Amino acid sequence: MLKRIFKEKKSSKIHVSKKGKGNVDENDAGYLTGWFASPNGNPAKAEIFIDGVKAMDILANKFRQDLISIGNGGFLGFSISLSALPISFLNRKIIKIDVLPESKLSLPCFTVELTEDEYFNKVTLCNSGYNIENIERKVIASGLWDEKYYYNKYLKEYGLEVDALKHFILVGGVKGYNPSSFFNSEYYYSHNDDVKEAKVNPLSHYIEFGEKEGRNPNDYFSPRDYREANSDLVDFDGLLFGHYVQYGISEGRPLKIKSDSKLVVSNSCLTSFELAKTNEFENLLPSTLENSNDKVIAYYLPQFHPFKENNEWWGKGFTEWTNVTKAKPLAVNQLQPRYPTDLGYYDLRIKENIVEQVELAKQIGVDSFCFYYYWFNGKILMETPLETIYKDPSIDTEYCICWANENWTKAWDGMEKDILIEQTYSDKDDIDFISHVSKYFKDARYTKVNGRPLMIIYRPSLFPDMKATLKRWRKWCLRNGVGDIHVVMVQFDDVDPNEYGFDAAVEFPPHRVGSQNVSQYMNFNGSFTGSVHDYNGMVSNGLNKKDEGYTVYKGVTMAWDNTARRNERASFFVNSTPARTERWLNGISKIYDTEKRLKQDRLVFVNAWNEWAEGTYLEPDAHYGHAYANSVARFKSSNKNSPEIAVLAHIFYEDLIDEIIDNIKNIPVDFDLLITCVESSYEAVSKKINEAFPDKLVDITVVLNKGRDIAPFLLNHVESYHRYKYICKIHSKKSLHAGGIDNWRGYLYERLLGSEKQIKTILKNFEEDEYLGIQYPEYSEAIKPFIDWGSNKKTCQDFMSSLGLDCPDELPDFPAGSMFWFRPASLNALLSKPWDMSDFPEEKGQVDETVMHAVERCLLLLVQSEGFRMRFLSLE
Length: 876
Hints:
Helix 16 (535-544) packs parallel to helix 18 (578-595) and helix 25 (793-802) crosses helix 27 (851-865). The strands form seven sheets. The protein has an eight-stranded parallel beta barrel with strand order 10-11-13-17-18-19-21-23. The chain contains 27 helices and 32 strands. The radius of gyration is 34 Å and the shape is globular. It is α/β, with parallel strands linked by helices. It has four domains: 15-125, Immunoglobulin-like (Sandwich); 141-251, no CATH class; 295-635, Glycosidases (TIM Barrel, Alpha-Beta Barrel); 645-873, Spore Coat Polysaccharide Biosynthesis Protein SpsA, Chain A (Alpha-Beta Complex), CATH 3.90.550.
């Protein structure tokens, strides 16, 4: 808890300078009161200045009996509540308040000097009608008070060591300050003029009256809707918004009943497209770290404290939190804004906040922080957190640095437009830089690779001669007692570290592993100029990415969403979940195992520990709790498993999604989903399947309606097939040309995915026969009349010839309906062919003589050409 030093004192006098006809009265009622004579006998205007800065206009027109003798019937008095004045002590002990009458030549300025203690004591007396202790109890019990949040956001910067709760009740609330990240005081005032005019504390009013009267605390919560959406709360007589904050979020409770009518979209949303909504909230798991093979290093952003340059560029008091708190969702169910919980809106000038971060990192298995380092030709920005750790050996954490060698721009893009501070290079600067940071290298806590200090360079291509710079650095370190250094480049705009002489490269997702831009399928209005991608696709790309000829340290990101910085120009990834991050981490460990990496080369980088404005962080928040932190903790346990099977599904018919989901749920082991769909079904496919399987990888690619289910099978996800031992290929089949053939689709689904027992038998068949390449349903009685060459024989012969293989005269068995389980290696002849969309005809309802029909009928021949065999599937 924060230190409470509010002291009840007897009020002191307000010191007054009297130089004419007027006065500021001595009183203890919490008001600035007084009078001044008007030259023309009418009520007079005046201005109030606080420390020389105009604060407000007032009018001396209040009746006072003692002023009748000097004219205007006694209406020459004024009275202003001290709590209404924009007072901030800003490390000063005394505030100077000037009351300057409009007729400056005939009346003097009246000056008040007020100490901080006097101010707060007078405000307390001004509100003596309140039962302060009773209000305090109710505010705390509401669950809507966050003392750490309030102190760091409104008091710490100004050095105000006062009782934070009393400050909010008596002063902060009427100034529009928020008691926590949930309750919005300005919103409450702007929607309730009567409360604002009465200058009543907004949260106190909401607790006592507002919720009962149907008033809302912010722009997304309605007490009435919340009660209606949660039947167990019908008779709940407590504070509903408090229930939602304390319990509803973690329990995944709905805010309202979803209406069948047109979706009501938030004012900030630029599309009605509805993203998947899932609940992955977790409390922090007990620490059970057992995996010492893989070393986790998390990038650390230090921009969570104000400093001179940011004050000048972005406004006084700017930190990363400034952007985070202003973010608004651009699509329905987009997680914006983000709300920190346990660590709050911390200030990194405070050592205790850094210590809390270090303790959490150690508990979940983060081995080192990699601090972004901002060096500009000798000028260093945001070094405070790093210096705090460096200067205090008791802070038990490893750390290293990444020189973020970009220009700083107003667009947050490191380019050459609207530059705030420019990055320049020279031979001298090379030496100045390495000599300055070498002090960190000598720290026993600094992260080392095989005994060599680790340093990362973000944009090597921006150096005029990176190779020469590296040579200077290495030479200087060897000559000055540092020894050899391990220098790594980020794979940003260059890939091969050998080009410059780096020791290794490091991935920096989402760069170079980003997935398909799906914003074109989301019906954004014209003001949106950003991009939207699927997190699942990024995970797949990250696990499929191959680098040869050099060492690459692989990396993950929890998500990516820079809406807080770029608004309608944002790029963001959807469908990210902690379980998918854990899948990515486990997949990396499996890759390292396959490569037989030495322990010193098993570094895994996480982007990032605290990139709140880019939506990627391990620190706890209101939506996920500690779920992302737990994903790292589980990875650092001894249980690291990657799924060995996948379901490959092409979904054209949106109305079959639920049927497909029901069948997939029968799979008794872990699995991934590789999905293709057409644009018209994308929203339903993405939402329903991601909501049904939030703990699975659901990699969705939007494709053209061309080539039926065969083109998607051969053109998409192919690079992912190698990650699995067995894959089940299905699609949303209707076969309209044959009248449905007695629910042929259902017949096939039942034999491929119809029950847990059926699937276990299929997997057992594969395990017991290493040369079993493909399993597919036996022919149904309804389909047997259709099993022939038809007019496809010539098409099949041409297709097999294109692969250098023969096609027999006799029709081979084949998986009619093109749904089957297969071992990827058994279809190498088919999958290694360089397919192109031009290989497939335009959709015209063809029933024969296409390459799709040839592939279907020749599958067994292709399997046999690779030395594998087939097996029919019947019901168990």
